[in-house]
């Protein structure tokens, strides 16, 4: 074969190859991107219909949870809406049979037999997830020991799930204590909470305290004293602070005062628990003052709630009638303008629970012996508090806080003289006079000359240490040699 024939054959084969390549390019050109490569994460588009809500709470995800409860026999059906709020809607439901409902072959619908199990009425509290009005919940969860590892402020669904579990556990703790009436919690599933429905017996809910028609003036006093007693029992026995106690979150059922809406309740160890308690006292006093009765000073109620030992009290610390009798006879009535002025001062006080919460001016007052304010807020001697604490032992399986032995006195303040130390410290405290100025120790309170000398000694020590220090470039060479040998 001549050279010309070989060249012509090669040219034909090359043209055929180019033709095939062009066909492939035309076929897959729409799948080939020639623009600059970007490593940013591609946006995924989600259908908004998956989050479409009815009545601000019923989205497809929540409906699946409700259907699951019906299939498992927890509830039979979901009826109308009882109330709406900033965080949730409450619906009425009948309890299920405990078995899966039967499907009618003719109609294809679920049918549940009318049994005694259906007579129990439930309140279904469904929290808002997609449409949130109440968003600032961080202060109620931040610092809570039980939820220290389960917080997600940036994910609304996870946050609401934690919020629902928080109310379930608080309700369970109050109900198990047996000292404060509260709805019995049944089940919680994500953002759906099932609990006992407080009914008048005719299908309507029992009235809230704000809607209750009082029979006479004595009944107003009775519920006021009961509310004050509940605040103490909630703090001392249940180890909780309501944080939103008012006439809107209490119900009169069977002539008893029931406590509801405890989703925001915190433990006494919470950094803002005392501020929440002070707010609860203010709300309760404002309501009953509008009802035209004499109220107690807020500071007096605060001391009554946080004190483990009550002077001249001879009853049962867990008995509501005994506490009501003590309140009516021993707490002073707010009657003068001076009491009002003291309440205003008390509302603006910086409440502290530990030495870390004290400011420098507080230590100055303590050094000068002017601790009249702090002395009235800290605990009494350890022996009395220790004896009283034995009366408030309450075992809660869901209680995730530190053991009782680590807790401070009933006032939840740290004793400035070291009340949380060993029992030997309490014995030694007898030899010290409260009026004698205390010598504060530590770097914060040392003399300027001593501080200057201490810093100079530290500099000299570091200077001597640097003289024998291996140079960085020598150290790198040694490390490199060691690695190369391996």
Automatic annotation (TrEMBL):
Biased composition (Basic and acidic residues): 437-463
Keyword Kinase: yes
Positions annotated to bind ATP: 125, 198
Signal peptide coordinates: none
GO terms under biological process: ribosome biogenesis
InterPro entries: Kinase-like_dom_sf, RIO-type_Ser/Thr_kinase, RIO_dom, RIO_kinase, RIO_kinase_CS, Ser/Thr_kinase_Rio1
UniProt-annotated stretches for the region Disordered: 394-486
Top-level lineage group: Eukaryota
Active-site residues, as the UniProt record annotates them: 244, 261
Keywords assigned: ATP-binding, Cytoplasm, Hydrolase, Kinase, Magnesium, Metal-binding, Nucleotide-binding, Ribosome biogenesis, Serine/threonine-protein kinase, Transferase
PROSITE patterns: RIO1 (PS01245)
Residues bound to Mg(2+): 249, 261
Enzyme class: transferase
Subcellular location: Cytoplasm
E.C. code: 2.7.11.1
GO function term, MF aspect, one: metal ion binding
Bias kind Basic residues: ranges: 464-486
Cofactors named for this entry: Mg(2+)
A GO CC term attached to the entry: cytoplasm
Biased composition (Acidic residues): 404-436
Pfam families recorded: RIO1
SUPFAM superfamilies named among the record's database cross-references: Protein kinase-like (PK-like)
Family, similarity comment: Belongs to the protein kinase superfamily. RIO-type Ser/Thr kinase family.
Protein name according to UniProt: Serine/threonine-protein kinase RIO1
Native source organism of the sequence: Saccharomyces uvarum (Yeast)
């Amino acid at each position: 074969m001549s050279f010309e024939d070989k060249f012509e054959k090669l040219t034909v084969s090359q043209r055929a190859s180019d033709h095939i390549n062009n066909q492939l390019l035309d076929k897959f050109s729409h799948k080939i991107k020639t623009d600059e490569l970007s490593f940013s994460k591609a946006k995924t588009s989600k259908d908004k219909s998956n989050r479409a809500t009815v009545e601000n709470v019923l989205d497809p995800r929540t409906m699946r949870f409700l259907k699951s409860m019906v299939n498992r026999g927890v509830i039979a059906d979901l009826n109308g809406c009882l109330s709406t709020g900033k965080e949730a809607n409450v619906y009425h439901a009948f309890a299920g049979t405990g078995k899966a409902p039967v499907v009618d072959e003719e109609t294809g619908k679920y049918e549940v037999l009318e049994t005694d199990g259906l007579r129990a009425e439930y309140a279904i509290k469904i929290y808002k997830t997609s449409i949130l009005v109440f968003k600032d919940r961080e202060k109620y969860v931040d610092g809570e020991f039980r939820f220290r590892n389960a917080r997600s402020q940036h994910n609304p669904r996870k946050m609401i799930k934690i919020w629902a579990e928080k109310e379930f556990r608080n309700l369970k703790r109050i109900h198990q204590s047996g000292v404060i009436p509260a709805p019995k919690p049944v089940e919680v599933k994500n953002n759906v909470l099932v609990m006992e429905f407080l009914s008048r017996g005719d299908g309507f809910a029992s009235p809230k305290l704000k809607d209750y028609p009082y029979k006479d003036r004595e009944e107003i006093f009775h519920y006021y004293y009961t509310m004050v007693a509940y605040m103490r029992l909630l703090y001392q026995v249940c180890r909780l602070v309501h944080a939103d106690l008012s006439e809107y979150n209490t119900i009169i059922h069977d002539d008893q005062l029931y406590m509801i809406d405890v989703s925001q309740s915190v433990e006494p160890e919470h950094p803002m628990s005392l501020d929440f308690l002070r707010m609860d006292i203010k709300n309760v006093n404002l309501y009953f003052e509008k009802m035209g009765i004499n109220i107690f000073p807020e500071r007096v109620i605060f001391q009554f709630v946080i004190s483990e030992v009550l002077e001249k009290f001879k009853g049962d610390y867990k008995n509501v009638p005994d506490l009501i009798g003590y309140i009516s006879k021993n707490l002073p009535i707010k009657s003068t303008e001076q009491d009002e002025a003291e309440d205003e001062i008390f509302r603006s006080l910086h409440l502290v629970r530990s030495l870390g919460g004290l400011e420098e001016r507080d230590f100055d007052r303590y050094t000068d012996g002017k601790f009249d304010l702090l002395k009235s807020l800290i605990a009494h001697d350890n022996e009395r508090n220790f004896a009283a604490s034995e009366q408030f032992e309450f075992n809660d399986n869901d209680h995730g806080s530190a053991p009782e032995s680590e807790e401070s006195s009933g006032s939840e303040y740290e004793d400035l003289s070291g009340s949380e130390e060993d029992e030997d410290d309490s014995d030694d405290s007898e030899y010290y006079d409260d009026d004698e100025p205390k010598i504060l120790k530590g770097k914060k309170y040392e003399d300027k000359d001593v501080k200057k000398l201490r810093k100079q000694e530290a500099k000299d020590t570091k200077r001597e240490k640097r003289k024998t220090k291996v140079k960085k470039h020598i150290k790198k060479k040694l490390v490199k040699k060691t690695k190369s040998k391996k």
